[in-house]
UniProtKB/TrEMBL annotation, chains A, B:
The lineage of its organism: Bacteria, Bacillati, Bacillota, Tissierellia, Tissierellales. Pfam families: PGI. Coiled coil: none annotated. This is Glucose-6-phosphate isomerase. GO terms for biological process: gluconeogenesis; glucose 6-phosphate metabolic process; glycolytic process. Its main location: cytoplasm.
Amino acid sequence: MKDIILDYANGFVSDEEILRLEPQLKTVHRILYEGKDQNVGWLNYPNEYDRKEFEMIKESAEKVRSNSEAFIVIGIGGSYLGSRAVVESISHSFYDNMVVKKNNIEIYFVGNNISGTYLKELMDVLEGKDISINVISKSGTTLEPAIAFRIFKEYMERKYGRKNSKERIYITTDKEKGVLSQIAEEEGYNRFTIPNDIGGRYSVFTPVGIFPIAVAGIDIDKLMEGAQSGVMEYSSDIIKENISYIYGAIRNILYRKGKEIEILVSYEPRLFYLQEWWKQLFGESEGKDGRGIYPSSLSLTTDLHSMGQLVQDGRRNMFETVLNVISPREDIVIRKDEKDLDNLNFLAGKSMDFVNKKAFEGTLKAHVDGGVPNLIINMPKIDEYFLGKLMYFFQKSCAVSGYLLGVNPFDQPGVEKYKKNMFELLRK
Amino acid sequence: MKDIILDYANGFVSDEEILRLEPQLKTVHRILYEGKDQNVGWLNYPNEYDRKEFEMIKESAEKVRSNSEAFIVIGIGGSYLGSRAVVESISHSFYDNMVVKKNNIEIYFVGNNISGTYLKELMDVLEGKDISINVISKSGTTLEPAIAFRIFKEYMERKYGRKNSKERIYITTDKEKGVLSQIAEEEGYNRFTIPNDIGGRYSVFTPVGIFPIAVAGIDIDKLMEGAQSGVMEYSSDIIKENISYIYGAIRNILYRKGKEIEILVSYEPRLFYLQEWWKQLFGESEGKDGRGIYPSSLSLTTDLHSMGQLVQDGRRNMFETVLNVISPREDIVIRKDEKDLDNLNFLAGKSMDFVNKKAFEGTLKAHVDGGVPNLIINMPKIDEYFLGKLMYFFQKSCAVSGYLLGVNPFDQPGVEKYKKNMFELLRK
């Protein structure tokens, strides 16, 4: 298999049902490319991005890797989940430990919560290490990263002096507007641009995502190549040829049939943050006006032993979308044991991945038999190229799915409400 | 505040509604203590546990801490989530890093998935380290831990020789039955007992949970004290005095009102695995016969910037239960900045925890205004005592909630279906 393939042949949604949505999908396609809503800059961004800034990002990443032992990424939501998803998917599973060993760079994500315990204990870990930081915020007024930046700015000025700390602080923000832009100007920090017409959850291919990804030593050229391939393949308005539209259509059909929860399933633990990124993408795009599928995720087979019972036998209000990775990065062969006390010799010579795939097949059949619709997204392997393509696939599907639901997939008015209350309480 | 307190005064469920369930709750209480269903050994276990085995566990934990740099816990589901929940809640937030620094023990949880990548990369990390392992499985036939054990058994025999590796292998299993019990017997391994009448998801206070917890250097006496306090307080059949019954009753009332999803919310990132443990407890206990609330979790304020939009404005099919920790373990004070470029000086002198609490209050009001019922579980702090009490509180609530729903909260027939399919596929 050489490409991402969507398999939905489990009998829950027919081709006929999907094709019945073709006129609506063609309309959605037109609306999307007409750019009636703002924030569709992501659509062709993988082809149109600023090559000069891209090269600057690579150079800065090299500089950080050469002068820092730890890199602190300050951001929340869309300024956080995309880069973390790629970094954790590609990196070693026991990341923090290996970086020590390989003398590679440690990456920490902060400013994505307000826990003093989390930040204080991070400070313990950073003791004696050379660091650089990247603050990512469109406006600079989002409280979580703003507090973390105030604390780290002071920390770095104490450690390196005001002048030298400038070399270690990178700001990713609006081209001209906003508090963070002013700070960058005033202090003379290195800076990268968040495009005006791309919302946070669609921003992984912009400097928001790619600078931290590059610092982690991941190939951002290949990531963009994958995204470019997505732009090309998923722009066809011939529905049966465009799997991102088919996925969007199926979600809509299942939602109308009462499936209120979608579970993104993975059999590789290190895809956890990719699942978190996907939750934001779909949850924030569709969860409005009293509507929207509740996005949830499971890591299998781990969660078959916690949530498996409910998926098998509980309320039939859910469907699953399985991310099936064909080739694992690493594998282990199960060996023969002379005594065979554990009765596992029937697996001798088989690899763990072989068993993992059989677990997937067995689970698929069990859940389908139990009345849970299952979609399968097959991807050849987890590398920069296919991650780029997959993430673009999801972005495109999400836009289409949101329009089919009758909501604006690019706004998030509900996020402001807690902020408003919080600021009122804080200013009292 | 000196105790765990349940606050449900948000206007979604009235005292009258709860008291209307009093007769049913009294019946449930009687059924529970009559032990009509099997697997209610957990009810009084915190008072009745085997003191001699408990001391042995402490001694073994000390031995592991003295002769090992890493400890491998092999188990899945109920043989995994309880100990991991306590270890991660109590330990340092950047655990893996700190253990290196403090020369403490590293703990890895394996056999909870079938990813060859995960296991192979763990092997990289373990290179050159002295290790001990704990295999936890009632029968020994659960495939995930069985495979991991086969691989680690061979690994250790190669590293230490067969005789010396015995000193480093600890088996937690049934007293007499099952493959793992036979292996322990045959090989002469150290062993601890999983009581017959306690199911996996109710087993955190048994050797299943407390041995790994003790190895992590956590005070298991205090954990048991907390659980004992729970046994005492949550055994009253006077409903209005028993918050575990009230919580169970409210869940049932909300479910009948169409709230199909419960979100366990925390403002402390390190409670992640406590939330995972809670998901298994409730999901596996209630998700059957086409019924059951879908348990989900959010870590705030992180997820306000991903799932917050949907919770605020999406489909009104959910309610939230907030774990509110009164006193943080660590905190950081936000300082005044002369230039105040970020306009945060209004927070100067305030602690991050103060801001975190205002975020909680603001979010609570926003979500309640948005039509999402909110329950609050206030706990004084995250320590062994209150974690023990909280986990017992949830266990008791879950049993009651399951009975009110009309299901058997102690079985999990649906978990077998994928296993059956998988074994058929594997034996082909």
